[in-house]
Amino acid sequence: MAHVTIHSTNLENIAVGSLQTKWNARGDRILRYYIDVRHKKLNLHKEVSAPEIFILQSKLDALIASWDEKYTGYLKRQSLLSGQAAADEMTTEAALRLASLTRILTHATLVDDRIDWETLKDRSAYQYPKDFPEPKPASSPAPQPKYVEPKVGFFQVILGKKAGILAEAEAIHAAAIQQWKEVEDRRKVALAHAVAQWEERRKAFWDEHKAKEDAFKAEQAASHALVDQLAAEVASGEEEAVIEHASLVLERSDYDGLFEKSYLLQYDRVRKLMKLAYDLPSIDVLPSTKAVKFVKATGELKENFISDRDRKANFESVAYQVCLRTIHELFEADEAGNIDAILFNGFVEFVDPASGQQKRSCLMSLLVDRESFCAIDLNRVDPKACFKSLKGVSAASLASLAPIAPVMELDTEDRRFIEAREVGAALDPGTNLAAISWEDFEHLVREVFEKEFASRGGEVKVTQSSSDGGVDAIAFDPDPITGGKIVIQAKRYTRTVGVSAVRDLYGTIMNEGASRGILVSTADYGPDAYKFATGKPITLMNGANLLHMLERQGFQASIDLAAARLAAS
Asked: Model's pTM, two decimal places?
């Protein structure tokens, strides 16, 4: 069974979710693993994902190591001595943090970004116990009875009783010796039995650990084979492998805890184009402390901050440096020559002061080929000027957070999406949609909506089925007026659909940030359902509507709710 291990010096502060998996449409192969990790003290969170456990473990190790380093710094700050000494130390640290913002790009030129595949292989030996934990049974024999010479009195000798007294003493001694021998024999038998059982347990103990060692080595060998397989797939330019290789490169990029890296990678094998949507650090998370003063009157440590103008200038500088550094890392690590060009779209999340709402905007976009980029000396360039010379697109001031249209968009991607199945071709007028499997029904709904949206360049993707009322499909409609992200839920019901299903859809629309939702059912809806949907961005499609849409797309089927209920009973 797949599992990962958390290696941390402060495990008590690490919260780890359960290992999640995404399966293919047939349910016979795991496409990707996911795990959620949080640092309770630092209030950090990240979802780590990979197609193989060993890649997930490598990413997890890098993340936890960076968190441990951050936590060490946190503890150090917490334990600083009060007073001027603390203020001086914090001022020095603040100055170093600010200075580090200017070295983000040059740092990349000092690091070899190529992946050493051998470092991904676990070469550790199985850890045997030092010894069998159970001591060997031991038993000491009782001392052998000693013959005690009887005392014979003068009168007893005269009376001729001496011989009898000696004979009686010898008889008693002989009986004691016999009893001792019997006890000793029983002790030896019991000891031999206990030792034999102990030997069996000890053998079983070491046999168990030998089996565990064999399993450990087999798992290691399998993991090594997967590493070799990934390396071979990267060398041959397999899309998923190239993406995972790039992900490993970016995960290892050390920003000294400046921000938590988050990005989306896509690869166009035909054009050898790596597309990257990268979350830039916001202005608020960048270091802004200039100095720390100790206020004797109150015993407090007071921070002095850089000016707002300097904060904005630092943000702009960091953004351009991160962009150029990321592109450099991907090109340098691409030993197989899979990447001829890179698209970097830099995003930032922020709170809109006008509305108080959380927003996400693309602030910068650059499409650059390898030859043009590798001709640059990153140690000597001005990051912004270099970005502009490569025909990068950005607002005049990044700090204005003004969104720009990217040079090129990434494809829509959702990790819940699974491989679609074509169901419509198997339909005939006798197919009762109310009686087919709910998986086939969801795929059919996706298929018919995909045909509906195809004429205007739209796209519909089916999500991992759960039969629990969750999202069944997502449509991306490019129409500027009626389009956007549309949630589609498919309900293969045999009885009237109540208002709860419509409420669930409305909640999903809100959670997904969708423009509207469509609920498709084989049955009709109750009056409460229609009433709730009134005035909301919800479309309710009953069985008759679905059959009409299917007919419009060239499919023939039927809906017989009574027959479906009878078949299910």
From this structure: 0.58
